[in-house]
Amino acid sequence: MTTPAVPTLADVVRALEGLYPPVTAQAWDRVGLVSGDPGQPVRRVHFAVDPTLAVIDEAREQGADLLVTHHPLLLRGIHSVATTTAKGASVTALVVHDIALYVAHTNADVASPGVNDALAAACGLTASEPLAVLEGQGIGRVGDLAEPVALAEFARRLCAELPAAAGGLRVAGPPDSLVRRVAVMGGAGDDLFDEVRASGADVYVTADLRHHPVLEAREEARGATPYLVDAGHWATESLWLSGAAERLTDSLAASGFASSRVETHISTLRTDPWEFVIGAEPPAGPAGIGGTS
Ligand SMILES: [Zn+2]
What residues form DSSP beta bridges with 142? Predict the structure, then answer.
């Protein structure tokens, strides 16, 4: 009996590209293999949203040969990888510790199943369709809940599905209004408000929402739908990690690399940069503090 083979980085990259084809990434994005030798063996793969220095340290402590992240480390040009900058220190740490880095970003957003399917499921949607088409790819998701639910209760249920983050969820809309049709876009989604309105969504779950776009959208809606939920950039995207790890294991197994030969880990670090909140107000009214749910 022969020992099952260990995949090389090239084998793992091939599997990842099958799950998240690079051609489906947006034109401005930078996805794919960032560091590493395609010939090196990969026994441990570490998954995280962000390739921060702490995450790279965590990957090293786990003995990872490959770090797979959602966000690119090098989106814009740099001219030095000296450790005098955080980006340089990150690249140096990856190279010194022999950890390959692979990025699946907007190609993981549009993949099915991908980042937005994971967020749609966390919202309670069992079926959804793309919210919009951009560069030929279906982005975001929209679908209907099985039953209408009060906005505050919807947000509370979503909060329970998301990893804990200091900021929690911010909601623009009356807590007691019923919502059923839900649009989602993991990460920054304030450029899709027109598509959200066109979709007939009662509520839009995304992140990185700013004062003016939100206020203007609420003014346009005259207090009615679509309501808005800012569920946090890191939280909405971290939902994808465990499914991605499972699908990579399955894909490698289908190529003859036994799951016993490749371990996957999910980062336990919260890379949401916000660390605490002071003075947040709970929702008012029956769906708020002291409500029925
Ligand atoms: Zn993101």
Answer: 129, 183
Rounded to two decimals, the pTM is 0.95
Rounded to whole angstroms, the Cα distance separating 164 from 185 reads: 19
Ligand 1 centroid from CA 6, angstroms: 31
- Ligand 1 centroid distance, CA of 138 (Å): 16
- pLDDT tens, 137-154? 999 999 999 999 999 999
Around ion ligand 1, residues with a beta carbon closer than 5 Å are 187, 237
- Going from the Cα of 231 to the center of ligand 1, the distance in angstroms, rounded, reads 12
How many angstroms does the Cα of residue 291 sit away from the middle of ligand 1?
33
Average pLDDT over residues 172-186: 98
Calculate how far, in angstroms, residue 101's C-alpha sits from the geometric centre of ligand 1. Answer: 17
Report the C-alpha gap between 218 and 220 in whole angstroms.
5
- pLDDT one-digit tens code per residue, 37-46: 999 999 999 9
